[in-house]
């Protein structure tokens, strides 16, 4: 017990010294807190806290000591999440030449406070409700594959287990989500979960984390990924197949897409078909978003953290020893969730009648699953489009259709109030006032304003007024322009008069 107490006090000393040193550097306040929080994580990610939780605990003045963390289920708390080099670097940077005495005194005060009865009682209390982290999720056992030799060995074992259903997922960097994944993106890792029976040498039921950034690893897994008899299930198969094809891997052996299966099971879900929503509802497995786990506030110009949360580069999350344990857990969590979701949807579809003696799962296997793979082939082939000659004409037609629809709306709205002709039809606030002004919000007692005044530039007013005159057939050409200027002058005079009242 005495050794445990000394170890706990030593952790407090080292963490406090490092924190104070980092906080002395302008602009590193947030980074300092995040570093201390990540350095104190266990090897297992069950208790790993996001950087935002670390910030909240720091503001509250309550820190989770090794004793408190152990009480909540951790078994390896301390600096174990850091590599030897990172620990040495952190130790060396905890005291600077000019501030050694002050830091040492602050550390002694912190250690004394940590050893007090009040501090022990505070550590025994829950730390509060903060952003959910991995301690709210089931921890997934992991077997990491990080070199070509191990990749060849594990891939050979997988090829020998064709009777299993293998759930797969990828994590991808350098991706523009506004474009097709074809031809872009870099696969950082592949995760595989094959159920509780597969044992690749580190125990049964572990998920595989395959680090494809290491030389030769993806090439070693290529024979299994391209093995027709090895059935692999995915969530949104088209995306994963395309990004792997970008690396020269043509995935086959399509065992199913849980997104397609979920749509067949219920085509009217308001909650959508994301993996997070489906696993939480059907499997009872909550998933924490990447931004909640790894997001960090964007620093303002003065170095303080702002409200905008940004994600660091994904490849740095995988490469850094500070974030890799959490990154691995985040990645394999999706693979296991996909496997569990597949089994649940298989059972549900099997209970739904299709023909007299057959089920919707039979329908999926015979028709939808082959069609799902065909769709990815079609997406890969694409459709030839004569962009140079066709696109300008299509854009012109689209703009004409938009102008006609806007004119129809203005004519309709002006029948109720003349000012509606001059409104910005793209403004949600102005449309809300037109349609719902004076109404009471459904979720509160707030009454929406019956009328609002919006500023309109003179040039825009004149343009809209000319359009109105032409639409109603009251003026043409120069007459319309003169009438518009006259109307603008009257509107300006009316506004000025109203301001004086």
UniProtKB/TrEMBL annotation:
It comes from the Eukaryota. GO terms for molecular function: 3'-5' exonuclease activity; DNA-directed DNA polymerase activity; nucleic acid binding. Gene3D superfamilies: Ribonuclease H-like superfamily/Ribonuclease H (3.30.420.10). Pfam families: DNA_pol_A_exo1 (PF01612). Residues 167-349 form the 3'-5' exonuclease domain. InterPro entries: 3'-5'_exonuclease_dom, DNA_polymerase_A, RNaseH-like_sf, RNaseH_sf. GO terms for biological process: DNA-templated DNA replication; double-strand break repair. This is 3'-5' exonuclease domain-containing protein.
């Amino acid at each position: 017990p005495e050794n445990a107490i000394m170890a706990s006090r030593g952790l407090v000393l080292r963490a406090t010294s490092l924190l104070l040193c980092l906080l002395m550097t302008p602009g590193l306040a947030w980074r300092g807190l995040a570093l201390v929080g990540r350095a104190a994580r266990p090897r297992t990610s069950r208790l790993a806290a996001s950087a935002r939780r670390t910030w909240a605990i720091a503001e509250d003045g309550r820190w989770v000591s090794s004793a408190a963390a152990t009480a909540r289920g951790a078994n390896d708390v301390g600096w174990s999440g850091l590599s030897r080099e990172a620990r040495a670097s952190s130790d060396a940077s905890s005291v600077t030449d000019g501030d050694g005495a002050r830091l040492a005194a602050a550390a002694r005060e912190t250690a004394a406070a940590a050893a007090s009865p009040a501090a022990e009682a505070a550590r025994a209390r829950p730390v509060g409700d903060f952003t959910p982290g991995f301690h709210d999720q089931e921890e997934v056992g992991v077997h990491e594959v990080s070199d070509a030799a191990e990749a060849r060995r594990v891939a050979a074992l997988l090829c020998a287990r064709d009777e299993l259903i293998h759930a797969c997922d990828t994590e991808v960097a350098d991706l523009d989500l506004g474009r097709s994944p074809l031809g872009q993106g870099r696969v950082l890792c592949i995760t595989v979960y094959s159920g509780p029976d597969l044992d690749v040498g580190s125990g049964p039921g572990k998920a595989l984390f395959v680090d494809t950034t290491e030389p030769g690893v993806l090439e070693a897994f290529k024979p299994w990924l391209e093995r027709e008899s090895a059935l692999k299930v995915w969530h949104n198969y088209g995306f994963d197949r395309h990004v792997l094809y970008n690396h020269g891997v043509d995935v086959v052996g399509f065992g199913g897409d849980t997104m397609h299966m979920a749509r067949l099971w219920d085509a009217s879900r308001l909650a959508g078909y994301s993996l997070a929503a489906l696993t939480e509802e059907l499997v009872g497995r909550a998933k924490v978003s990447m931004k909640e786990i790894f997001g960090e506030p964007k620093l303002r110009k003065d170095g303080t953290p702002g409200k905008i949360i940004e994600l660091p580069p994904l490849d740095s999350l995988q490469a850094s020893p500070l974030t890799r344990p959490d990154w691995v857990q985040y990645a394999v969590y999706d693979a296991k969730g996909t496997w569990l979701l597949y089994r649940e949807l298989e059972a549900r579809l099997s209970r739904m009648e299709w023909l007299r003696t057959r089920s919707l799962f039979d329908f999926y296997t015979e028709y939808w699953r082959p069609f799902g793979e065909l769709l990815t082939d079609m997406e890969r082939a694409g459709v030839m489009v004569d962009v140079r000659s066709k696109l300008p004409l299509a854009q012109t037609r689209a703009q004409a259709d938009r102008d006609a629809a806007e004119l129809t709306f203005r004519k309709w709205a002006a029948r109720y109030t003349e000012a509606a002709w001059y409104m910005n039809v793209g403004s949600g606030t102005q449309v809300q006032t037109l349609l719902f002004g004076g109404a009471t919000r459904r979720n509160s007692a707030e009454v929406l304003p019956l009328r609002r005044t919006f500023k309109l530039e003179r040039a825009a007013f004149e343009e809209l007024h000319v359009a109105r005159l032409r639409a109603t057939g009251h003026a043409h050409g120069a007459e319309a322009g003169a009438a518009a200027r006259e109307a603008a002058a009257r509107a300006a005079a009316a506004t000025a008069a109203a301001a004086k009242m």
